[in-house]
Amino acid sequence: MMQTLKKIVRGISFALEGLVFAFKNDQHFRINSFLSLTGTFLSLALLEGCLSLVLAFINYSILVAELFNTAIERAVDTATLEFHPLAKAAKDVSSAAVLTTGIFALLADLIYLLPALLSAIL
Description:
Pfam families: DAGK_prokar
Radius of gyration: 18 Å
Largest sheet: none
Binding site for ATP: 73, 82-84, 91-92
CATH class: Mainly Alpha
Strand content: under 5%
Order of helices and strands: HHHH
CATH architecture: Orthogonal Bundle
Keywords: ATP-binding, Kinase, Magnesium, Membrane, Metal-binding, Nucleotide-binding, Transferase, Transmembrane, Transmembrane helix
GO biological process, one term: phospholipid biosynthetic process
Shape: flat
Distance between the termini: 55 Å
InterPro entries: DAGK (IPR000829), UDPK (IPR033717)
């Protein structure tokens, strides 16, 4: 039981190290984290029921996509120092995942969160 608990704690420690690394070393991660977490918290604070959870999840998914993007970019950078079209494609595709997630979240926020925010402040 203690061995299992130690493995879990060690795994969480590695995950937190990855989060800190991404935050310290990737400006886009910091920007997207701010936007993602702001949308997540506003969704939970201003909306009700399932809609608040769905919109919070959509906004939070930007953060997750950006973590994957950061991991892929660092792995590609480690794999080759020379330009390679497939390396570029991997980085571009992972970046596109963040972009498309962000666009979807923005549209959802404009449709559902913006009216609730305006109602709360006006």
